[in-house]
From TrEMBL:
<dbReference type="InterPro" id="IPR043504">
    <property type="entry name" value="Peptidase_S1_PA_chymotrypsin"/>
</dbReference>
<dbReference type="InterPro" id="IPR051201">
    <property type="entry name" value="Chloro_Bact_Ser_Proteases"/>
</dbReference>
<dbReference type="Pfam" id="PF13365">
    <property type="entry name" value="Trypsin_2"/>
</dbReference>
<dbReference type="InterPro" id="IPR001940">
    <property type="entry name" value="Peptidase_S1C"/>
</dbReference>
<dbReference type="GO" id="GO:0006508">
    <property type="term" value="P:proteolysis"/>
</dbReference>
<dbReference type="InterPro" id="IPR009003">
    <property type="entry name" value="Peptidase_S1_PA"/>
</dbReference>
<keyword id="KW-0378">Hydrolase</keyword>
<comment type="similarity">
    <text>Belongs to the peptidase S1C family.</text>
</comment>
<protein>
    <recommendedName>
        <fullName>Protease Do-like 5, chloroplastic</fullName>
    </recommendedName>
</protein>
<keyword id="KW-0645">Protease</keyword>
<dbReference type="GO" id="GO:0004252">
    <property type="term" value="F:serine-type endopeptidase activity"/>
</dbReference>
Length: 306
């Protein structure tokens, strides 16, 4: 059985985080090298087989194929470099009694209860994310909850700001935060459209899975018009299904098309029961729905109906 989970992340222990790269990186390297080796071997074998009939030499054919492959990689690298500054890390923090809710407290004065993602909406400091990422802040009456937003500056520095809650819509799992930052350092994402998406087209997710900030995963659109539950218990219609990896900590981050335009907000994944691992069936809220709701949240703080 599989369970649908929202993709916020509980803090990961230092031991677990230290173990992950050791376990995963060698596999990734072997896979990348093996893929190139297999492709090149297959190409050369095919070329040798047809050498009598083809005017092209195997070496030339191999060079052309590898150049094309590198161009595709270069496009993805460029997409990430252009979009990643628009993606933020959101920490759900519980303050001690002596800490101020309007300032970044010391480590001794906080408990990080979870992490999620979000993205810069405009140069006025509005940040869009999932409601479930900041639900504790939205429900807090004690003044002990705080959302801290980390943004990437143009020079590569990371700045953390305390966010103000501007608006929420639990029925569509959306929320808007606001940070105080110079407009010149804020790079809003380019808004796309989810109206004309096709199953099979490439898509890219950027977020902070398990606290690893600015992580890129790739995949395709696997399905359209899906229905997923909201934190309010009502259904969210028209969700995008993708096999781009979405894990704990990705919630609220953008799903992008090949041009780097946002087409959805990564929200939920089916996990294998008892494992906590994604099954590869992941969902994003379509950007056309987000575009209808977010302006109301910025101006009014909520939305009564859609």
């Amino acid at each position: 059985m599989a369970t649908l989970k929202w993709c916020t992340c509980n803090p990961v222990s230092a031991r677990t985080r230290a173990a992950l790269p050791t376990q995963l990186l060698p596999i990734a390297r072997v896979t990348a090298v093996s893929r190139r080796a297999c492709l090149l071997t297959a190409l050369l074998s095919a070329s040798n087989f047809t050498l009598t009939f083809s005017p092209f030499s195997p070496a030339v054919a191999a060079d052309v194929y590898i150049d094309d492959f590198d161009e595709e990689e270069t496009r993805v690298v460029h997409l990430f470099e252009q979009a990643t500054r628009s993606v933020v890390c959101i920490k759900d923090v519980e303050l001690s009694n002596s800490s101020s809710s309007s300032m970044i407290p010391s480590n001794e004065g906080t408990i990080v209860e979870g992490t999620g993602s979000g993205f810069i909406w405009d140069r006025y400091g509005h940040i869009v994310t999932n409601y479930h990422v900041i639900a504790k802040l939205a429900k807090d009456n004690s003044g002990k909850q705080q959302s801290q937003v980390s943004i990437l500056y143009p020079n590569g520095d990371v700045m953390t700001k305390v966010a103000q809650l501007i608006g929420i819509d639990a029925a569509h799992d959306l929320a808007v935060l606001k940070i105080d930052a110079p407009g010149g350092v804020l790079q809003p994402l380019t808004l796309g459209s989810s109206k004309d998406l096709k199953v099979g087209q490439s898509c890219f997710a950027i977020g902070n899975p398990y606290g690893y900030e600015h992580t890129l995963t790739t995949g395709v659109i696997s399905g359209l018009g899906r229905e997923i539950p909201s934190p309010a218990g009502s259904p969210i219609n028209g969700a995008i299904q993708t096999d781009a990896a979405i894990n704990a900590g990705n919630s609220g981050g953008p799903l992008l098309d090949i041009f780097g335009h946002i087409i959805g907000i990564n929200t939920a994944t089916f996990t294998r029961q008892g494992s906590g691992m994604s099954s590869g069936v992941n969902f994003a809220i379509p950007i056309d729905l987000v575009l209808k709701i977010v302006p109301h949240l910025i101006v009014e703080g909520s939305i009564s109906s859609l």
